[in-house]
Amino acid sequence: MVDYEVVNAYGARIYSRINVACPGCNLLLLCDQNQRDLIKEAVAHDVYACILPPYEEWEVLTMIRNIIAKEKLQEQKKHYKKKEL
Length: 85
What we know:
The protein is 62% helix and 9% strand. It has four helices and three strands, in the order E-H-H-E-H-E-H.
């Protein structure tokens, strides 16, 4: 999870650095509605989601649950592929 101020401070290269440090990680960006350019930039760099204020607890937790469910599904697919071989 990254706040928009981090992107303002380090620029778009922060996305690349995070992807190199943690390949396959899903990034959530906390930003304001008036920062449309940052949102477009984030989407272009494969950010999983942009969450707008107010940052409701249920919204953040739902995003995290979705990420975890997606990862579990990918692991199951890998497991089944190995069984087929």
